Input
Amino acid sequence: MSNETRKPLISGNWKMNHNHFEAIQCIQKLAYLLTKDDFAAVDVTIHPPFTDLRSAQTLIDADELRFILGAQHCHEADSGAFTGEISAQFLAKLNVRYVIVGHSERRELFGETDEVVQQKLVSIQKHKMTPILCVGETLSDREAGLTHDKILGQVRTALAKQSVEQVRSMVIAYEPIWAIGTGKTATADDAQRVISAIRQEVAKISSKMAAEAIRLQYGGSVKASNIGEIMSQPDIDGVLVGGASLDSAEFARICQYRLRAS
Ligand code: PGA
Output
């Protein structure tokens, strides 16, 4: 399906990197490197750690920067006895607009199930933010030929209670777990095949209209040197970048991929 009508979304997931001083420096450098034309061509979200959010928000507001503030995670409840957790409600108060949900590191290291991911989605949307739902298969899923089953199952559970309007405005990131932080990437054709299957599944679960509007990202060892090929695929509307988003110069080159396209 052609991606002409869907504005590309480039997201930087810093994971547990950069304290709030480093965050300010990194955003300032990035703001210096990106132009008005870049922001007209792509949406850029930045997902720093929780402790950086207030500083990042203040900087973005004060300097009227065009970055969209994102978070990496939230709890599904609004408040309560959940020591150490942060709710979607609190993030919304900081002008956070996008929240990553169901990242494979959260699923694997912190035991988040498809059901919990689904509750988080609902909470993020209740507070008028956009979820970036991550789905992906392990290497053993892949070797057993279970890639599509695993991913489409994750999509089906997450979207079970979503209205057409909610689905069309969310983002799904396909992140093969074996490609995250390993330097290995799915080939652009491979990523396109899986992402196109996700779009078809969204059409089945929700509607054709939602499937045409929803933005689908690829994530897993995206760099300035491979983004051009990834973004040339018809169903890929953006990328979720981990390691390479920590370096402002590299992330700026990723955001400017279209300038190098032939
Ligand atoms: P990576 O991480 O770009 O470092 O592979 C991607 C992610 O985990 O979102």
